[in-house]
């Protein structure tokens, strides 16, 4: 078993990852670098997933049941809309290790995940802030949970990686809340910038807007259209994250209207999933009435 509190790699056991998407594969790659065996479920996954898993050095198994049997820790890094289903598939097995939900879900949903494993597996709430970890400073992994030994085990697992672990004292839900609070500003900013581009374009002053933004608000998304376009390929994932933000707001008596509108906006760009050459005009087209 994984020995808690150790930052060395020699005592790291087997880890399962569900699933190696763009983020999950990079997270799993960091764990492989600690010396742990990392497994993923190959059955039913795309050729792109297989390529990412192979590049990350992951071992393939055929089912969630086999993954659970091999793993002492399971990391769930998937689109937020699938988080409860993925947790349920693991909870349906005899898995009794540490389950880390590192998805962009509301604190309420994080507690629902924990309830699935009550009395058996130990659950750690995780929130990844930043992009797929490739170098130091790219991303942080926030961790919380009332099982402090389990939280420390996960902190120690990532301590020597470029995915920086940060422990938040307190129960499951705190890491998720922080992740969503940050995303509510960071990702909705992409919608605001695209809206400004669309308005300016419609009135023939887009070039002037970009010049103005570069002079008055340099470094912001409004002055960096090439960065705003990166929202297009990821919008299909960001839309359900906005819905989680709206739900988290409602749970504390705060309106989630802005997040709900952002979810609708991101869905307008859902057909840009996987595109590698998204332009500002593509985003603007998605915002036109009737689309």
Summarize the structure.
The chain has 291 residues and is of the alpha/beta class.
Percent strand equals: 5-15%
Supply the CATH superfamily name of the largest domain. NAD(P)-binding Rossmann-like Domain
How are the strands ordered across the major sheet?
3-2-1-4-5-6-7-8
Would you tell me the structural class of the helices and strands? alpha/beta
**Radius of gyration, CA atoms, in whole angstroms:** 20 Å
How many domains make up the coordinates? Answer: 2
Description:
- This protein is α/β, with parallel strands linked by helices and 291 residues long.
- It folds into 2 domains: 14-171, NAD(P)-binding Rossmann-like Domain (Rossmann fold); 187-287, Orthogonal Bundle (N-(1-d-carboxylethyl)-l-norvaline Dehydrogenase, domain 2), CATH 1.10.1040.
- It is 49% helix and 14% strand.
- It contains 13 helices and 8 strands.
- It has helices at residues 22-32, 47-56, 64-70, 83-91, 107-116, 148-158, 174-186, 188-202, 206-216, 225-228, 231-251, 257-268, 280-287; strands spanning 14-18, 37-41, 59-61, 73-76, 98-101, 122-130, 139-144, 163-167.
- It has an 8-stranded mixed β-sheet with strand order 3-2-1-4-5-6-7-8, with helices on both faces.
- A hairpin with an 8-residue loop joins β6 (122-130) and β7 (139-144).
- α7 crosses α11.
- The longest helix is centred in the C-terminal third of the chain and has 21 residues, at 231-251.
């Amino acid at each position: 078993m994984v020995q808690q509190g150790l930052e060395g790699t020699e005592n790291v056991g087997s880890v399962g990852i569900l699933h190696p998407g763009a983020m999950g594969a990079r997270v799993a790659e960091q764990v492989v670098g600690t010396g742990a065996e990392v497994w993923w479920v190959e059955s039913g996954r795309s050729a792109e997933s297989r390529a990412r898993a192979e590049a990350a050095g992951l071992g393939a198994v055929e089912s969630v049941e086999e993954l659970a049997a091999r793993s002492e820790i399971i990391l769930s890094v998937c689109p937020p809309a699938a988080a409860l289903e993925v947790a349920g598939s693991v909870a349906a097995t005899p898995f009794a290790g540490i389950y880390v939900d590192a998805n962009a879900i509301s604190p309420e949903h994080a507690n629902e995940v924990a309830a699935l494993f009550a009395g058996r597996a130990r659950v750690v709430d995780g929130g990844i802030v930043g992009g797929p970890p490739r170098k130091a400073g790219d991303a942080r992994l926030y961790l919380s949970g009332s099982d402090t030994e389990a939280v420390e085990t996960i902190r120690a697992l990532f301590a020597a990686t470029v995915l920086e672990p940060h422990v938040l004292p307190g129960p499951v839900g705190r890491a998720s809340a922080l992740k969503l609070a940050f995303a509510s500003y960071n990702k909705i900013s992409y919608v605001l910038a695209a809206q400004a581009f669309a308005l300016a374009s419609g009135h023939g002053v887009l070039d002037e807007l970009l010049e103005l933004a570069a002079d008055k608000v340099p470094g912001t998304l409004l002055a960096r259209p090439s960065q705003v376009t990166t929202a297009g390929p990821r919008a299909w994932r960001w839309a359900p994250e906005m819905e989680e933000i709206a739900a988290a707001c409602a749970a504390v008596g705060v309106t989630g209207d802005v997040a709900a509108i952002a979810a609708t906006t991101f869905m307008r760009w859902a057909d840009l999933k996987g595109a590698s050459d998204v332009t500002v005009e593509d985003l603007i087209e998605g915002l036109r009435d009737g689309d």
